[in-house]
Amino acid sequence: xxxxxxxxxxxxxxxxxxxxxxxxxxxxxxxxxxxxxxxxxxxxxxxxxxxxxxxxxxxxxxxxxxxxxxxxxxxxxxxxxxxxxxxxxxxxxxxxxxxxxxxxxxxxxxxxxxxxxxxxxxxxxxxxxxxxxxxxxxxxxxxxxxxxxxxxxxxxxxxxxxxxxxxxxxxxxxxxxxxxxxxxxxxxxxxxxxxxxxxxxxxxxxxxxxxxxxxxxxxxxxxxxxxxxxxxxxxxxxxxxxxxxxxxxxxxxxxxxxxxxxxxxxxxxxxxxxxxxxxxxxxxxxxxxxxxxxxxxxxxxxxxxxxxxxxxxxxxxxxxxxxxxxxxxxxxxxxxxxxxxxxxxxxxxxxxxxxxxxxxxxxxxxxxxxxxxxxxxxxxxxxxxxxxxxxxxxxxxxxxxxxxxxxxxxxxxxxxxxxxxxxxxxxxxxxxxxxxxxxxxxxxxxxxxxxxxxxxxx
Amino acid sequence: xxxxxxxxxxxxxxxxxxxxxxxxxxxxxxxxxxxxxxxxxxxxxxxxxxxxxxxxxxxxxxxxxxxxxxxxxxxxxxxxxxxxxxxxxxxxxxxxxxxxxxxxxxxxxxxxxxxxxxxxxxxxxxxxxxxxxxxxxxxxxxxxxxxxxxxxxxxxxxxxxxxxxxxxxxxxxxxxxxxxxxxxxxxxxxxxxxxxxxxxxxxxxxxxxxxxxxxxxxxxxxxxxxxxxxxxxxx
Lengths: 458, 235
Prior knowledge:
By secondary structure, chain A is of the alpha/beta class. Chain A has 15 helices and 17 strands.
């Protein structure tokens, strides 16, 4: 206990010091505390209600939405949005959430939890609610494969936690099966006009997770998202409790069935992965005790943060910037498919190389070969641009994917690409950027594109 | 010619691209896909090439179980010189056994090595080496690490920088006749176009031109320069 007390005060002092230095709180106080007391998380005071959000894609957006909604109801929420989602970041968050006597000063906290860190977190943190947005392939080096990540979470999840799971995800919907008493599922029905059965390179639901035999998809939205059953054993997708029945893109609303009753909610963004995030939040808030009307009133005031999605105009061309997690083939595929189904003629610009990795060694191109670049061969895609140290590799990947060479422009630096950039016959330029490229995008790339095409207009 | 792809549904780590690349390079080849509950095509036929790629640890064990009844036949085909390529985690299947905690999983026992699997310690590595006078390179990412016996001398290539079968070991993969096994993850064949061109020419018995060959070679040379750059950590 003495170790904990020393660690606690060291962590608190580090927090104060960082604040005085004008630095945003990071995971450092947690890292320091853990160095002194390795099981610091066991002893630090924790709020009564703990909502943990995990999953390969969508956890940050989901956390942001939950926090915004709860705060609209004047609930004081502790969160780790400025720290990291691994053990040190979560310890740092809890240090923030207690007074000098280690008593929690928040009733509720929303934690984004890195899937890989589950074993360290759930050993000492018992979430009241746990949301898993989905489990997909991510960085090969860190996350290996979905089966591994599934086990990492499943083996350490406390059995008393109420699970809110994606009923359309063949993999993550099995979390807590046979162990957790309460498992709530959310999903999205096949939507009107929605193209399904799309071809994806990755589908980790092809083989049954229980027996290894072929899975049969009764409805496949993308990758392993849909409804499926095993050709040999009794493994099958669950029936969802919270289901998006339809969406109205003009009115930007969606109709959701909440345990059998239908309600209309504002739709924050029409991309299907954002619809999944939103329905998971609706499920959580409903389970938390909010009435559907109240939830809808919260949703009216939500928007996606500009660091993840923003729009601007460059002459006649609309420029849409979307964050795309590097090394993540699913995020890349989803954005390629979103580009494909977007109306009009589109150009795509990839700024996705891991710059830090490139300085140290050489980035693996594995994930590029798991991403569905093939869909960009469509006639509605006018140009494809790519920058970064791996640009030539991306060009080779695109050529193998059937993209005509005349559509492809690549360069090591963004400025080289922008110099060669033409956007004739193009309505929209979609820029997909890795989170580490956001500053470059905002400070250099976007202004240069806006200037170039505004000038050419004149 | 016939190419047998074992357990395509299980493929991971970009190894799908190895299959697609083979198909692109050999468009006239007939592809025979074998699923886990199927009898392998090679059991009663002699394919020109057998390929198996990266898979999860559970699927690895399913593959071992499925292939065990055919291990003698596989050995016979190896001895006959049939071209076989195993990449990434599928290589483990060829060894004597895998140790995973207190479990011992018997493998096909066709090569003289054992594997220690540690699910909480991922072995990530880069490798640069030479084979047939040209340079090979790639990335590795696995939970199991193979250790050959002291007598084992059936390796794929010599490592000049980075890690071989394990850290500081200077041999990568295994080779016997025309069977090649490498732990390099996908897309191994795209990363090594000189090897791929020569290897597929041998498999097909005719000179193969890779798709967009000049660009493939340019990418290879760029990456090679990075792997040789002393300022980068290649380990």
